[in-house]
Design brief:
CATH topology: Ubiquitin-like (UB roll)
Shape: globular
Largest sheet: 5 strands, mixed
Structural class: alpha+beta
Number of strands: 9
Helix content: 10-25%
Mean pLDDT: 80
Number of helices: 3
Strand order of the largest sheet: 6-5-9-7-8
Strand content: 25-35%
Order of helices and strands: EEEEEHEHHEEE
Low-confidence stretches: 1-22
Distance between the termini: 42 Å
CATH class: Alpha Beta
CATH superfamily: Beta-grasp domain
Length: 106
Amino acid sequence: MAEIAGRDYYHGTRIRYDVGMCEPAFEIDILLFGPAAMTAGCSSVRVACGVGSTCDLVREALCVQHGEIASIVKAGRLAVNGGYVEGGTVISAGDEVALVSLVSGG
């Protein structure tokens, strides 16, 4: 169990929100590209989400459940259904979610 921002994550089995315990309503696959995919060794990872999870909560859960890419998650942005979103955007089952990591080059 890890604690981030006052929330406990039980690695995909239970998520405790400030209002109490709940079973995750769904799991979502996060598409990975570039450095995130190379570090994780795969093109997507699965994250457990509770009802009403925002992009900020999904990012926190992604850091806890897939710690090997936490630094990339913190520096990157989430895109939902093909567009960049703000942290308060709610993620729903069936959304396409991608982690777009920062890249450099010329």
